[in-house]
Amino acid sequence: MGGVHFLDESHILLFLLQIFVLLSSAKLLGLIFSRLKQPTVTADILVGIIWGPTIIGRLFPNFFGALFPDDIIQRNMLETIAWTGILLLLLSTGLEVNFSSIWKQKKKAAKISSFDIFLPMIISGIFIYFLPSKYLVDPDNRILFTVFLSTIMTISALPVAIRAMKDMNLLKTDMGFLVISCLSINDIIGWMIFTIVLGIFSHGSFDIVFTLKIAGATLLFTVAALTAGRHVISFIVTQIKKRTHDNSGYALTAVVLTGLAFGAMTQRIGIHALFGFFIAGMIAGEAKDLSEKTRTTISHIVHAVFVPLFFVNIGLKFDILANLDLFLVAFMSLIGIIARFLAAYIGTIFARTPRQNRATIAVLHTPGGEMHIVISTLAVELGLITQSVYVAIIAGAIISSIILGPWLSFVVGKRYRGQGVLKFSRKGIIEDLGVEEKFKALEILCASASDICGLEKSLILNEVSAREELVSTALEEGIAVPHARMKELKKPVVVFGKSETGIDWDSPDGKPSQLVFLILTPQDDVDMQIQILSFIARSMSKVGIRELILKIKDYATTKEILEDVFKDLIVERSVLDNKLAE
Prior knowledge:
With 582 residues, this protein is mainly alpha-helical. It has helices at 9-35, 40-51, 56-59, 61-67, 72-95, 99-104, 106-129, 142-154, 158-167, 174-203, 208-243, 247-268, 273-285, 292-317, 326-350, 355-364, 370-382, 387-415, 438-453, 457-470, 526-540, 543-551, 555-566, 573-581; strands spanning 429-430, 479-480, 483-486, 493-503, 513-522. It has 24 helices and 5 strands. Residues 416-421 and 568-582 have low confidence and may be disordered.
């Protein structure tokens, strides 16, 4: 039967060897990069470069040919699992976008995002338009090429920014939430533009009727998904929670099935399946009964196995050195970073964001990342961009991600002025909250805060509850940090509450919260909230301190330990052991 290809045992054996070699290499190098506070996607791509035609293929061509033969079945097996990974990555990325929460603070986030989307397109587009023709697949498509690349210059990497904020203990702050909201809007609009551009290019030429059709289909699908689709998925997840004992597995399946259905829909109407998976993640993330633990489980599965194989596969396809253009790499890196930083900074001015936060927010908008690489991979396969442009986009994304950590540390470090000592009164320490529901715990904590600062309990509770409803303030390892900034306050108030049994606070690791810190700070003092939250996260990450606080039963010792912690004293393990023994 001519042209028919069959899968045999040799294909399966080689496929398993390929996965073993690539995945183990990616995870080992990724571990090193994680400890260096660098994005693991860089390690994944580097592994692909090493095992691909750039290094192994150049130095040991026979070995490379044996491990990665030029066989259509073998290539398609690896390609299929790689694309499965990237579809699931878009699903996972969508889960990180909390559309309802974004909508509640849409004015400030929209102002920043409007600048951060269109200003970089204008700045970078001017330069990109005049690139030499040798960088274009088809010089007649210069405008489409310019729109595509300038859109890439616009998009910031939400996962990279989240990772950086988590490392700096900024993720749960009001500023961190604003950054996530801005980048989420950035992602939604950016993906819509990408989808339209790719649809036009796939059509073969610019046709105003077809362009309006593809734009209308994209908008209609998005609106339908975020309205009717969101309610349907929320209903399904709620029913799963009610009717199953262990609902996490069924909920995970429901989320993946939503991605498959939406991916098929978008592919059918002429917009790429990637967009469908992204929107599916968004609306699934809106389901109130989808636990933070389930979201985290999906993210872990996707990033542990599938995502590394996609980015490793990039390095296997091309000889990076043969397509490396240093001018283009420098151009893509500098234009992208500068345009995104300036646009976000100007946006924070128009949004009247506190001056202390402007540079930090702008820096968090600078990294490119996984989405740059994903969409440019699709573009090079469709023939929209050359391999040299593709390599430059990848290099620019990696460079901007690598410099984010040191740059953010420098900017945040400059603003810290020293916290000083926080004093705890008897009213500020609750030995046992005695409740199992977080909003009841908030009532108790807010009542104590009211006694300390003199503000009405209802006023405090309204502010704290509103913030909690946006995004859970639970950290990992049994810590929760509900907080609010209040214009009526003159100085910070911290109330500590302990729960023997733990309270379901919808934490990322699924553990109940036993140590709860209610943090109230003056509205105008942005740094104070950031410093206290960061300090608690850093201090409570020490296992010994958590054990000690949970062990102690009397107010005086708890007060002493908490104030020691807040003085940033270095508590040796031997001291902790002695106190535990007492």
